[in-house]
Amino acid sequence: MTVTRTTRTARPYRYDLTVVLTYYLPYTSGLTEVARTVAEGLAARGRRVAVVASRHDPASPVRERVNGVDVFRAPVAARIGRGVLSPGFLPLAARLARASRAVNIHLPMLEAGPLALLTGRTPVITTHHDDVWLPPGRLAGLQVRGVDASVATALRRSAAVVVNNADHAEHSRHWRLMRGRIAPIAPPCREREPAPAAFRDGPGPHFGFLGRIAPEKGLHHLVDAFRTVDDPAARLLIAGDYSKVAGGSVVGALRERSAGDRRIRFTGFLTDRQVSEFYASLDVFALPSVAEESFGISQTEAMMTGVPSVASDAPGMRVPVTSTGFGRLFPPGDSAALAAALLEAAAFSPQQRAEGARTTRDRYGTDGCLDSYDELLETLGAARRATV
């Protein structure tokens, strides 16, 4: 990666880094968790960090301090599909960006382009998670083109573009704009403490998914694949919030597709402790997404605990499996191949599981991610501590 060191005249800065994204706590998604873990991790290392997001939950305060991070939320006037209309979001983010040594904009985001143009002399770091994807609809094409245009502007203005891995970046619609300035930094994956297998129900193989219950996750393929498993003791656990999914959940359609199969369970939202118990209950983790995922944090955290992953063989999400050998891949959308891969991974030996867990922990721990962000900030000349 080639980045340009930024030299500027001394002036007081309120923050070392301002992180900008549409959804933040209490919303839960892979993107949100990356932003939160990096923000709180850098704050714990002594940096002054702010986060700007929409106030998607009216019960959330406009401003609060969470684990050392100053969180600012702009009121939402309306919701459009997965997005929100917040007139105050852009001015708030631009003001704090200009008062910071660096700004980190998480993509895709409709406001990314205008924000990147309003940051003044502040170096822009964009984190490119995914190309925007929307289920088919009357206005979907128009929305995608609008977001893509904004993302392109932000990328052109970026001093560096953080990507979860080069495999995903090279298959992005925006690769031409990212090439030459990417900083591959794997997202922070948490090593969880051992926990009881509280979700286990019987001696049969337990397959599971944890994430947003959304169309692009391909969960209909997972349900179809599992229903071909001829074992009454087998279980499929689908975990994740389906009451507050941006753009709407598909849990109703999945329940219909399950056709009363009592071996399939929808757990709903899991607390932090329950997530550890969930992983401890599984024999195999499944990531059957049909749209591109840049990585798959939940699959990697499961792998860290000794649970192999079965993932779609698509850019980004296949990397944790290909880099560690701990799991199996299948062609996206192929339910028969998915079923075969699930059963093959379920047969992994205890030795394979222990070795896979060690390899995954060594490669994808949180400290390495934070070290890389620290180094990037140093390179951009944003290392000096902020002064109030």
Q: What are its keywords?
A:
Rossmann fold; 2 domains; six-stranded parallel β-sheet; 16 strands; 19% strand
| Range of helix content | 25-40%
Number of domains: 2
- Evaluate the radius of gyration: 21 Å
- What letter string, H or E per element, gives the SSE order? EHEEEEEHEHEHEHHEEHEHEHEHEHEHHH
Mean pLDDT: 90
Distance between the termini: 32 Å
Report the CATH superfamily of the largest domain: Glycogen Phosphorylase B
Structural class of the helices, strands and pairings? Answer: alpha/beta
Total strands: the figure is 16
Query: What's the CATH topology label of the largest domain?
Result: Rossmann fold
pLDDT < 50 runs, ≥5 residues: 4-10, 382-388
CATH arch. level architecture of the largest domain? 3-Layer(aba) Sandwich
Instruction: Categorize the overall geometry.
Output: globular
Strand order of the largest sheet: 3-4-2-1-7-8-9-10
Q: Hey, roughly how much beta strand do the residues contain?
A: 15-25%
Could you characterize what this model shows?
This is Glycosyl transferase. One of its GO terms (molecular function) is glycosyltransferase activity. It holds the Pfam family Glyco_trans_4_4. The protein has two domains: 17-188 and 366-379, Rossmann fold (3-Layer(aba) Sandwich); 206-364, Rossmann fold (3-Layer(aba) Sandwich). It is built from 14 helices and 16 strands. The protein has helices at residues 30-44, 89-98, 112-117, 140-156, 166-170, 175-178, 219-226, 251-258, 272-280, 297-304, 319-324, 335-346, 350-364, 366-379, and strands at residues 17-20, 49-55, 63-66, 69-75, 78-80, 83-85, 103-107, 124-128, 160-163, 182-184, 206-210, 235-239, 264-268, 284-287, 309-312, 327-330. Strands 3-4-2-1-7-8-9-10 form an eight-stranded mixed beta sheet. It has a six-stranded parallel beta sheet with strand order 13-12-11-14-15-16, with helices on both faces. Helix 1 packs across helix 14 (366-379), helix 7 (219-226) packs parallel to helix 8 and helix 10 packs across helix 13 (350-364). The longest helix is centred in the middle third of the chain and has 17 residues, at 140-156. Residues 4-10 and 382-388 have low confidence and may be disordered.
